[in-house]
Input
Amino acid sequence: MNLETITELIFALFTRENITFLLGAFGSLGTLYALFAQRKNISLSIQSYSYKNKSLLMFVSFTNHSRLPISILNVSVVQDNVCYPCVYIPTVVCEHTRRSGKEIISHREEFSVQFPISLASLAGSSGYLYFDKLPENYPNNATTLTLEVSTNRGRAKKMKLSVPN
Output
C-alpha cells in the first residue's frame, strides 16, 4: 500500500458520522456505568434489640457501600403493612452510673441518633433507634424485623433483618 491509499482510507474512516457515533457510544457507556456502579447501596444490621411497654430500642449499624454520600432521613418499623417511624429528636435511651460505695464516680447518658444521618461514601455509622407508641399487637419476641429506610436518593427501601438474641 502506498501513502496515498492509506491517507484515503483514514479520511474514509474519520467522517463526521463515524466520530459522532463513537462519541455517542462512549457517552452511553458512561451513563450505564453511572446508573449501575454508583447506585444507592446501604445496609443495616441490628446489634441489640429490646422491647418493653410498647417501646422498641435497637442499636443499629448503618453502612454506605456506594461511592456517593447518602443521608438517611427516616427509619420505620413495618408491622402488618403499617409503618411506625422512630423518634427523630435525640432521646435519652440508656444511663450508665459507676459508684464506689455511695460516691458516684461517673455518669453517662446514651441518646438515640439524630436525623438525618449523613454517611460519606464507603463509610458507616451506628447508634440507637428508639420507637415509641407501637401497637398493642406488636410481637415482643420477634426473630426477624422489617425496616423501611428512607434516603435522599430514591424511594424508601424495605429490609428484612434478623434480630439477635
In short: The mean pLDDT is 88.
